[in-house]
Amino acid sequence: MKIPGLPAKQGLYDPRFEHDACGVGFVVNIKGQKSREIVDQALTVLENLDHRGACGCEENTGDGAGILTQVPHAFFSEACEGLGFHLPDAGDYGVGMIFLPDHREQRRRFEKLIEGIIVAEGQRLLGWRKVPTDNLYLGETAKVSEPFVRQVFIGRGDNVTDEMAFERKLYVIRRRAENKIRYGGLAGGDFFYVSSMSHRTIVYKGMLTPRQLSTFYPDLKDAAVETAIAVVHSRFSTNTFPSWGRAHPYRYLIHNGEINTLRGNENWMHARQGMVASDLFGDDLKKIFPIIQEDGSDSAKFDNCLEFLALSGRSLPHAVMMMIPEPWENHESMDAKKRAFYEYHSALMEPWDGPASIAFTDGTVVGAVLDRNGLRPSRYYVTKDDLVIMASEVGVLDVPPERVLEKRRLQPGRMFLVDTGKGRIISDEEI
After folding, report:
1. Closest Cα partner for 282 from 148, 165, 133, 413?
2. pTM
């Protein structure tokens, strides 16, 4: 399916080889304390990564920029009350951030399909919200493919026993909608894209420059939008074409670099689908295939795999270590238990290899990892007031030296992890 604004396969261009190299960063309060300040600091980090992104022949048409935060419950509660429906307690509802076609009849048709899927999966439709947007500063190329942005609010059904089961059910709803609308050949389906659908996190992104993000989405300027985790990304398409959906963050990660083994990784994931089984997904498993969506970039496909692994019962750090293992084969001093971990998982999955720096979050833990060769840099600061700032370079946020507790760089094959639920940084050895 052709993404709006992207050419079909021709000459030397093949959409299968889409890669990008970008600016990545996150700001997190170690203790999990939500604040407006985290959002403002993350937006500052993003603007300072502007040089790591790119624009087209129009300087006001960006390759992509975005932010992922925890769901701002207080903000959404007030916004939805004004629309005539009430939200339950935080964690008992999910939010879908959806790009839709501007054509009114097509858009309403898609919304009805989504509503039907929500009910069919035993969940409750709470209501829809049109996301305020302002395209005044956008270039013409970005405006041509600009989507109509709406949020759908989904209440947890009686058939869902816990938070992870609810997150899996939201994943199934999103996949069913994507398979029906985006890949089902429906008119206008090219403009359908779900940036996020979760009860934990939400993504605001688009074919924007870093400085356009908060002007295009006025929500991000509201004082009631608070979070303890904010992940930002400035995209440089490298040898690809930009689009609204290919902006980062994705649902679980941001990525700087390339996955050079992508074709093999993707083929093996397709091959294994016939043998996949899961007690957690049960009969829902067949609804989410294909696990890897073919029209995505290397980053999107990595996110597809990571999301599936994380929702199938593994912790997020566990899933990341499966996909980006250390060079363990000839590591003579590696702990025997760690070597056994990597050796066992090498029989389940091949490394997703290439020069890459990846940051990831599920709304509670947030971390970062480099490829085994460390070919993409990342550095982080830890402050005395429980703040962590990680980015693809230094200088993204002004921090007085007396506030700095420590500053380090990520090491190849090593993981940096903050668990806001436990309120601490977890060492690579403990992971």
Report:
1. 165
2. 0.92
> The domain containing residue 390 runs over which residues?
15-426
Which of these, 4, 395, 61, lies nearest to 237 by C-alpha position?
A: 61
Residue 134 domain flag? yes
**8 three-state secondary structure:** coil
CA–CA distance, 50 with 395 (Å, rounded to integer)? 13
pLDDT confidence of residue 240:
67
Does 10 map to a domain?
no
pLDDT for the residue 126:
98
Q: In what order do the strands lie in the sheet with 23-29?
A: 201-206, 65-70, 229-234, 23-29, 387-391, 379-383, 404-409
Domain-embedded: residue 274 = yes
Predicted confidence (pLDDT) per residue in 104-156, tens digit: 999 999 999 999 999 999 999 999 999 999 999 999 999 999 999 999 999 99
Query: In this predicted structure, what is the pLDDT of residue 17?
Result: 53
Q: In what order do the strands lie in the sheet with 356-361?
A: 253-257, 356-361, 365-370, 415-419, 424-426
Which two tokens mark 71? 């769901």
Q: How do strand 65-70 and strand 201-206 relate by DSSP bridges? A: antiparallel
- Looking at the structure of the chain, the number of domains it has is 1
Beta-strand relationship, 23-29 and 193-198:
unpaired
By the 8 A CB rule, do 76 and 95 touch?
Answer: yes
**CB 380, CB 408: distance < 8 Å:** yes
What's the confidence (pLDDT) of residue 236? 74
Classify residue 404 as left (phi > 0), alpha (psi -120 to 50) or beta.
beta
Q: Taking a C-beta distance cutoff of 8 angstroms, is the pair 234, 50 a contact?
A: yes
Residue type, position 77, single letter: S
Give mean pLDDT in consecutive 10-residue pieces for the chain, a chain of 431 residues: 58 56 88 98 93 69 93 98 97 98 96 98 98 95 94 96 96 98 91 97 96 97 98 80 90 92 94 92 95 91 97 96 88 87 92 92 96 85 96 90 93 90 90 81
- In this predicted structure, what is the pLDDT of residue 202? 98
CATH code for position 126: 3.60.20.10
Distance CA 245, CA 230 (A): 19
Measured CA to CA, the distance from residue 347 to residue 424 in angstroms comes to 32
Q: Is 55 a catalytic residue?
A: no
93-100 β-sheet, strand order: 124-130, 148-155, 93-100, 193-198
